[in-house]
Amino acid sequence: MSRMLPYGRQSINEADIEAVAEVLRGDWLTTGPKVDEFERALSEVAGGSEAVAVTSGTAALHVAYVAAGVRTGDEVVTTPLTFVATAAAAAIAGAKIVFADIDPATGNLDLDSAEAAVTPRTRVVTAVDYAGLPVDSAAFAAMAHRHDALFVEDAAHSIGSVLNGVPVGAGADLTTFSFFPTKNMTTAEGGAVVSPDPELAARARRFKGQGLVRDRDALRFPDEGPWHQEVHDFGLNYRLPDVLCALGISQLSRLEGFRRRRQEIHDAYNGAFAGNPHLTVPGTVEGAAPAWHLYPLRVEADRRKAIFEELRRRGIGVQVNYIPAYWHPVFEDLGYRRGMCPEAEKYYSQEISLPLFPGLSDEQVGMVIENVLEVAGS
């Protein structure tokens, strides 16, 4: 092949381009009417939960942890099979990170393992919808609430997913989305926090807007003048601009089509690889309608590096998702050690993510299948 086939990429059409151009021709580039419109559209996808648009998936996690009240001395229980931001954002908010192991079939955080890791200092339990497969948010929320904690669902992979009729975003205390180009939809860079709890959503909105208070009824000095605004708690500028929200609105209108195409590709891979003694296809759960972000194929661990390198040599841009978070030196330097979560480490040792995005043609899917079977499946 003359060009590397990526494992993921954005799907942009002329309607997306025109939506952005319309904003560029208008009066608002940053915080304006498209932000409100985008948040309303996100709320519909998230089962009616209030949506707060932010600048990235990492920003969404930071905002969610602050809204949940995470501070120095608190603990956050989470999975190691995730991009490091899931844990890093909580650590930056002051928490000690407690890693719990995964369900080896799905890659998602194991509920029993998470509950065993809870202590009286646990402020939040955070589960990741790995590869787009939603966790059981009702079960995780109930468990967290039994221990006077909140449940955060890191749904960076799963916007548009549904479990037992409940859309992702409706079941957790706080849910975070990412709109990076490889995700299920994009705003170039961007993310969101959604919550069914108005007070949690209000905290998220204040923090992402530098803590500014403009509501006259909430001002400490309401008669200062019409220009007056106050900061009651520190915040940061995590505001997503109008121009990117316009792209997001256009993308959301095609989200279900993206989900269907991702499922078709996922099904084609499953059909080719299921039953092969050298390969393990991704697990799922009853009642799930995932918006698959990744296709995490598992291969023989002792051959994974050679398989990865050969597929890349053949022009197939496979990826690995993810190195266990506590393997990063920043956690090693804090005293975390390998071996803490054996199922997550085993999963990582076998995992290769195959190309999966809506623009992938049937011919390209067939080419990926043929090469994977030649390199890894025999």
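That was protein one. Protein two is written in the same sequence-then-structure order:
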Amino acid sequence: MEIRSTTEQDLEVFVDTILAAFGRFREAPAEDDGNLWSAYEMDRHLLAVTDDGRAIGTAGAYSFELTLPGEIIAPAAGVTAVGVLPTHRRRGVLTAMMRRQIADLRARGEFLAVLLASEATIYRRFGYGPATYAQQLKMSRQRAAFALPPADDGGSIELRRRADCGEIIEELYDRYRRVRPGALSRPHRWWARGAGQAPVSTAAARHIAVHRDRDGVPDGYASYSLDDADMLIVDEIITTDDTVAAALARFALGHDMVSDVMIKRVPSDDPLRWQLADFRAAQVADDGDWLWVRLLDVPRALTSRGWFTDGEIVLDVDDPFLGEHHRWLLTVRDGKADCIPTDREPGLSLDVTDLGSIYLGGTSPSMLVRAGRIRAHQPGAAALADDLFRAERVPFCLHWF
């Protein structure tokens, strides 16, 4: 078996292989816009092939930007399209591809990789840890009245079709993702080709409710559709203003001929349930992990994010997949960090997967100490780590890749 890099000429076989790995069939030609693979970066993909040249496995990566705590924008490899044909599973193909991919990412100088895990048991062994989480809210329209009247901010909402407002929602999403820790960029290539899921994708019809401020400037949007059961399904509400988010939620809940409203993904700190007269009117229909993070270069990753508490702690970090074990002194002063090798006694011992989980501030180190995943060697070490690794707000990612 060989793991090799791909070129544009490999697109067809790459797509056919990953679809077969997931038991699916091609629904449209690979060259058509609207398919996820129209945004593939074939110079970042890998194929596992047999000695006689048959493709049996795939792994890819996108070039994203990830917003770190402190509104710091950092490059991140978005790992995607990882699969092995059913005929060749449990033979080390996946492990070989992931090892080669990490080596390639490091050779590019990248220090962060992220992915969405199809199964939660697969990617820990490769060094990835769940780092952001998302809830799905479902509300009965009859019960979901707001406790207070709407804010009189002079704003307005206009209804557009997805095909008519691509530039507006692309700009609004870009503004939003730059201030939300855990958010990923949506490169223009995705919007231009309609790749991925709605509202980026143009394959499925969507209404877009665009909110404008008192001066007529767009400052938020909601993407939605109605299903056959009279449920209004909101793909996402995008804005940097809680008042605008509330206005867009009111719009969705005020839609005629609708029995229920579902918002696909909201962060755990979303205030909507607290804005309703009946707190129980918004039920959490799903609550799970979303973005998984892998640190490829621990010192560079730790010194790249913003920090909000001064202090120092020694982290003993094990990376069994790469056979690496290092002890780092993390020192934070005035929002910036130094991270250097040390032989001092550790405050915490942890696996690189758990370092990925706490990196964005969405998982507290003390929770993982309680779970037995992180070992605290000194009294107060877990509480100190909680203070150090916190973010300015809950990290959250909407982008699907």
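The chain has three domains: 2-110, 135-287, 306-389. Keep this in mind for the problem set.
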